[in-house]
Amino acid sequence: MIIKEINSRYSELAESDCCLSCGGAINYAEPGTGEVCVDLGSGRGTDVLRMAETVGETGFVYGIDISDGMLEKARRNAEKFGITNVSFVQSELEKLALPDKVADLVISNCTLNHASDKQAVWNEIHRILKKGGRFVISDIYATTAIADEYRNDPVAVAECWAGSVTRAEYMQHLERAGFATVEIIEESAPYAKGNAEVASFTIAGKKDSCGCGN
Ligand SMILES: C[S@@+](CC[C@H](N)C(=O)[O-])C[C@H]1O[C@@H](n2cnc3c(N)ncnc32)[C@H](O)[C@@H]1O
Fold this sequence. Notes:
Elements lengths: L1 H12 L11 H5 L6 E5 L5 H10 L4 E6 L2 H13 L5 E5 L12 E7 L8 H11 E14 L5 H4 L2 H5 L8 H11 L4 E6 L3 E3 L2 E11 L8
Parallel strand pairs: 1-2, 1-4, 2-3, 4-5
Antiparallel strand pairs: 5-8, 6-8, 7-8
This protein binds S-adenosylmethionine (SAM).
């Protein structure tokens, strides 16, 4: 139900110009030449195309999204700009259609809050990162737990607020996935969204070079 609603809402938004981000992950990500990068919830593909230019011909960027409309728009944008070192993959965040240890860098902007099983998503991020690989993620969290009536409402989740968890829960998912230290790069003051109070932050971390955890 939730995925169906997300597909429908974001397919409708694919052709609009409205800003769908909640932070500046891309501005802190610093992809390097030759690196393999992944954008979770790549939307219209803007951040994927930016990273593709930076990693160059020897690098590659995957955009992951579930929405038919967003994937179509992103693929058209890549074609329009003649960018070929990218692939837009239809996949749920909880079960990424990517191999183990493929990525040097995982980014995401305002997407993880939609996932029903956030622990599974963080486990997947850990799985696809190479040893020593890093993530930079912008997302929202709820200042107090979202009431069940909204948390399970597909429309409210797709609207980018009802799926959010508290900051403490968020950090617990990261730790359980194997990310021992997390840097908070930017964090907003709380603000109202839907029927909740949320805040946005951009966080960064690394998979141990021993590849342990999880
Ligand atoms: C708020 S938009 C952000 C898009 C883009 N990152 C940006 O900043 O413009 C969230 C995106 O995540 C995708 N998405 C949401 N939930 C998802 C899920 N469970 N699995 C895969 N993609 C998902 C949506 O289709 C949408 O394109």
